[in-house]
Amino acid sequence: MGRIPCCERENVKRGQWTLEEDNKLASYIAQHGTRNWRLIPKNAGLQRCGKSCRLRWTNYLRPDLKRGEFSESEEQTIMKLHAVLGNRWSMIAGQLPGRTDNDVKNHWNTKLTKKLTGMGIDPVTHKPFSHLITEIATTLAPPQVAHLAEAALGCFKDEMLHLLTKKGVVFVDSAAPPPAASNIGAAPECIGVDARNMGRLPKTIMQERESSEIKGVWAVMDGSAGESSDGFAGLGEVFPANVDGGFGASYGIEGEESAWSQSTCTGAGKCRAASLHDEEIDGGELAADRGDHVGGMFSSDCVLWDLPDDLMIHPIM
DNA sequence: AAGAGCATCAACCGCAACGAA
DNA sequence: GTTCGTTGCGGTTGATGCTCT
């Protein structure tokens, strides 16, 4: 028998909607409402299935829809709710007037996951990557830990370097002398990479580095005592510590200080944005050896989001 | 200028939940 | 309690436009 199709496959148009179809659907719904989607296309004179009509209406034609870019506050709301609700897009969209679940889902998948990744935060768990590495370290046997941690950080590193490369980030070698103070702030973005890790960078990154000039603020975590400029104050700084303490990155866009990047890690007041300003990294010492969080970046009770109580999911014991 | 690669967004698919009979 | 029809939801795909080489 099989599944009953939602509509007859024959004589049903698919793909992009035309202006004429939009007008037919909108005017029909304006007159008759949205009762019984199966009958709507038939009555409205459309060669579409009801499901397609419903989707077109809810995602595009509805008069109360908001168009255009997501605002900072909308992004913050999505991030906060996703941390609590996961991929419940309709519930998240319900908190954003004028936005549909499809809008939210697309925005999350295309923009916000990349933003979070770039900040060193896992978009699935909303935890810092360093935190995840620690969790791995505490649940697996040492031989497995080393390989898994390296692989996980490698994934993150490649992703972030890819993102930063595309944004024209300047790469500097920590072995090289720091830029002159007069240059601080000259380049909006740069990244420091420990010389020991240079060989591990993807080829494209290395090419980027070779062709770039050192001209901006830099910060690097090279296994020695932390050092950085003050040029990044307030910007979204992320320093994922490698297991060998050799990788550090800082980024921010001058003049584009992101409200959410601040509140993400500091505004809530419960999560410290880890940076070299806040905490020095022990020289060369493996954080795992100390039984500490990798790099000592995030406190163990780090809470990413300061949510109102009614949004929190309380475990049922 | 052309083509490849990438990002974005609209649309589709299949499953689950819900409500009426 | 069961069946059937409808609606809602989330994952995925495909078309389109943009950027880069």
UniProtKB/TrEMBL annotation:
Pfam families recorded: Myb_DNA-binding
Chief site of localization: nucleus
Record-annotated HTH myb-type domain positions: 9-65, 66-116
Gene3D superfamilies to which the protein is assigned, alphabetical: Homeodomain-like (1.10.10.60)
GO CC annotations, alphabetized: nucleus
Keyword Cell wall biogenesis/degradation on entry: no
GO molecular function: DNA binding
Key words of the record: DNA-binding, Nucleus, Repeat, Transcription, Transcription regulation
Location of the Myb-like domain: 9-61, 62-112
SUPFAM superfamilies in UniProt: Homeodomain-like
InterPro entries reported for this sequence: Homeodomain-like_sf, Myb_dom, Myb_TF_plants, SANT/Myb
Compartment(s): Nucleus
Protein name: Transcription factor MYB80
